[in-house]
Design a protein that fits this description.
Elements: H1 7-143
Amino acid sequence: MPQLEQVEFFISQLFWLGVFFVILFSVLTYITLPKIRAFLNKRDDFVRSHISKQDELIKKAESIIENYEAKLTEAKNQASQIINDAKDEALHESERLLKATEEKIQQEIKLTETRVQKEKEDALSELNTQLKDSATDFISKVTNIEKGNINL
């Protein structure tokens, strides 16, 4: 039975298996694998270059952050110095204004005291004059002497 006779069929299959294996091996070794290796090498170079660029960028970012923090600290110090200077200046200015106001108040008090004293003296003088007039009127009425003849 020819269907059960596998030897000839098996040998021809082995031959073609060998032929296709050699062709496939040759294609893979000389065409496909070099392209894959080139692509992998190119990808490795790309990754390495980006990692080195990333390291450089990280170092730049760290230096920028350090610079920023230094400037921020300096700005905070300057701001607190400006605030302290402004407080001191405001304190001195308020003391100066207080002294000036106090001096003005003292001057006003002196002027007022002088005016009061003058008004008091004028009032006493006026009162004295009115008393003299009243006394001369009273004496002239009581004694029947004319006003012009009475000296007080």
